[in-house]
Design goal:
Length: about 325
C-alpha cells in the first residue's frame, strides 16, 4: 500500500498530497452507462416505490424492524385490471428487506403462494437502486394469457379514457366493473413485456394447470433468473396437452433494437399437427413437417428477434430441428 501511494505522489508532484484523491476523482472519466439502461421508454417498466418526503426521512434517519401479518385484503388497480386478493400474509421486515414466510395471491383465474426474501427496498426508495428477489412459488392454476393481457391493459391505461372521472370516491363494485372491462377487451392482444432493469431475481416455480398461448400444462417446474432486462429459463419440464416438454431458453428486452429470444425445446410423444398449432412459424420454415404422421420426438434449438407484440420475426430465425 505504501509503495502504491508513493507512486501516485511521484506521478503528480505538483498537487498537494491532501488534495490528490479529490483531483483524481474530478479528472476520472465518467463511467459508461450499460446499454440495457439507455432505453428511456423502457424506464417506465422499472420498479418504483414512490413515497412522500416524510416517509423517506424515516428511511434515512431511523432503523426500523418488525413483523406483519394479515388474513385477507383485496387490491383493485386500473394498472393491473383483474380481481386481486392477497391472503395469509406473514413476514418480517426492516429498512431494507422483507422476509416472507408466506403470501397467497389470487389474480383473475390464477393463484400462487410464495415464500422467500426481497432486499434493496431502501435503495429503491431513496435512489435508483436494485431490488433482489429470491423466492419459491407454487401454483394450482396459472393462466399466463389472462395475466399478460392484464399487464398490456395496465400499460396502456389512461385516466382520460374515463373522461377524467375522479376514481377516489368510487364504490369498489363500480370501480371493479370499470377496470375489468379493459382486461376483457384486450385478452386476445399482447404487447411487449419489458423486464425491469432494477430487478435481480431467482425464482423456482412448481405449478399445476398452466395455460400459455394454446399450450395447456398439467404440471410444470422451472427455474427463472432475472437480470439486466433478461429472463433465463432453466430446468423446465412439463406434462402438456401436446406431449412431454423439456425447455431451456432466454427472453431479452435490453433495448428496442435488441429484442431477442432463444430456446432449446424438446418434445416427446407429439404429433406434427400439434407442433404447427403451437409454433405456426415452423410451417413456414419447414413445410415438410406436415407430411409426418404418428408420434414424434422433436428437438429444436433456435434464436430469433422478436417484435413489440412478442411475436418472432421469421427472417431472423437461426437454428436447427431434429425429428425422430
Amino acid at each position: 500500500a505504501k509503495e502504491f501511494m508513493d507512486s501516485l505522489y511521484r506521478a503528480y508532484p505538483d498537487i498537494p498530497r491532501d488534495s490528490l484523491f479529490r483531483y483524481l476523482r474530478r479528472t476520472r472519466p465518467a463511467r459508461e452507462i450499460p446499454e440495457w439502461l439507455t432505453e428511456a421508454d423502457f424506464r417506465k417498466s422499472d420498479i418504483r416505490l414512490d413515497v412522500g418526503e416524510n416517509i423517506k426521512k424515516y428511511f434515512r434517519e431511523w432503523d426500523m424492524e418488525g413483523n406483519i401479518s394479515f388474513r385477507r385484503t383485496s387490491i383493485l388497480s386500473p394498472y393491473f385490471p383483474l380481481r386481486n386478493t392477497v391472503r395469509d400474509f406473514k413476514g418480517t421486515f426492516d429498512n431494507n428487506s422483507i422476509a416472507l414466510e408466506n403470501i397467497t395471491v389470487t389474480s383473475g383465474r390464477s393463484n400462487l403462494s410464495a415464500k422467500g426474501s426481497l432486499t434493496g427496498i431502501r435503495n429503491v426508495i431513496l435512489r435508483s437502486g436494485f431490488l433482489n428477489l429470491d423466492v419459491d412459488v407454487t401454483s394450482d392454476s396459472l393462466d399466463m394469457n389472462q395475466l399478460l393481457a392484464a399487464y398490456s391493459a395496465g400499460m396502456s391505461f389512461d385516466e382520460e379514457d374515463f373522461g377524467g372521472k375522479d376514481m377516489t370516491g368510487m364504490e369498489d363494485d363500480e370501480f371493479e366493473e370499470m377496470i375489468m372491462a379493459d382486461s376483457t377487451a384486450t385478452e386476445d392482444t399482447q404487447m411487449l413485456l419489458v423486464i425491469p432493469a432494477n430487478l435481480n431475481a431467482e425464482i423456482r416455480l412448481d405449478a399445476r394447470n398452466v395455460k400459455y398461448s394454446k399450450l395447456e400444462m398439467e404440471t410444470m417446474t422451472a427455474d427463472l433468473a432475472v437480470k439486466e432486462r433478461c429472463v433465463q429459463f432453466t430446468n423446465t419440464s412439463a406434462s402438456t396437452n401436446m406431449g412431454k416438454l423439456f425447455f431451456e431458453g432466454f427472453y431479452s428486452t435490453r433495448t428496442k433494437k435488441d429484442l431477442k429470444t432463444g430456446f432449446n425445446l424438446n418434445f416427446s410423444q407429439i404429433t406434427a399437427e400439434k407442433v404447427i398449432e403451437m409454433l405456426p412459424a415452423i410451417d413456414t420454415v419447414m413445410p415438410l413437417l406436415k407430411s409426418f404422421q404418428g408420434e414424434l420426438d422433436l428437438e429444436m434449438a433456435a434464436t430469433a428477434d422478436i417484435d413489440t407484440t412478442m411475436s418472432i420475426e421469421i427472417p431472423t430465425i437461426n437454428g436447427v430441428i431434429r425429428i425422430g
